[in-house]
């Protein structure tokens, strides 16, 4: 028998434990994201000063959590973890440098991703998940054709949309396991929009840390799998312009994240041309502004 413990603060959520008081999962009101127990694993990259090791897995509900625990879904998700079926975190790692290509039929769905093609000596922004895939994507009000020069490229928000909105982490189940996507913000907050500042303002889920325009230094409520948002580019004023995903505390007790970056030319949790940590005095620590849980 499982025990459900309601927590009513920052944000409202439900913690699930088994009859022996072992922690199983946390579900957040209004969010797709569920953190669950599973086998311990390590996330690392050659350019990262420290690796991240923990036993937390991240998967998505078929719809935002309404306070009622779907025990059948929870059982499926926990079983998937024990079988080590890739979750959101494992899928994100499939795009870092030197990762092998993964195919569904003839379509490459993962593998070493660039940030974008070179343009005037710099990596070009604008590579969405379907550009990486080389396929058109049909939205309710628009068809987005892929840019051939952006094949196997994803910028920061394109990477997040790939991991959360396109890839599947509960294959073979009857449940939906991706978060809806949109090119523009949806008033109902029912889909992940295209741009980082739009994701902060209009994506599904809940704001964990609001943007106050200054460096975020309170990490008490951030959860593994949360989206972390930055104002890293001074050329666009104070607007949110970069998004990544929180991986957890690393072996050096730093708050490490993964994102697709120009300097690293693609998804990275490493420290090449900027440390991938939220604390300290580096570029991304100084520009860290907000947290959203999808």
Secondary structure elements and their pairing?
Layout: E1 3-8, E2 12-17, E3 23-28, E4 33-43, E5 52-60, H1 71-82, H2 88-93, E6 102-104, E7 107-110, E8 118-119, E9 122-123, H3 129-133, E10 137-139, E11 142-144, H4 156-166, H5 196-202, E12 206-209, E13 227-230, E14 242-249, E15 255-261, E16 266-268, H6 283-287, E17 288-293
Antiparallel strand pairs: 1-2, 2-3, 3-4, 4-5, 6-7, 8-9, 10-11, 12-17, 13-14, 13-17, 14-15, 15-16
What does this structure look like?
By secondary structure, this protein is an alpha+beta fold. The chain has a single domain, classed as endopeptidase fold (from Nostoc punctiforme), CATH 3.90.1720.10. Helices cover 16% and strands 30% of the residues. It contains six helices and 17 strands. The chain is globular, with a radius of gyration of 18 Å. The mean pLDDT is 95.
From the structure above, extract its key features.
alpha+beta, endopeptidase fold (from Nostoc punctiforme), globular, five-stranded antiparallel beta sheet, 17 strands, 6 helices, 294 residues
Question: How many DSSP H or I helices?
Answer: 6
Instruction: Please give the CATH architecture.
Output: Alpha-Beta Complex
Distance between the termini: 28 Å
Full CATH superfamily name: endopeptidase domain like (from Nostoc punctiforme)
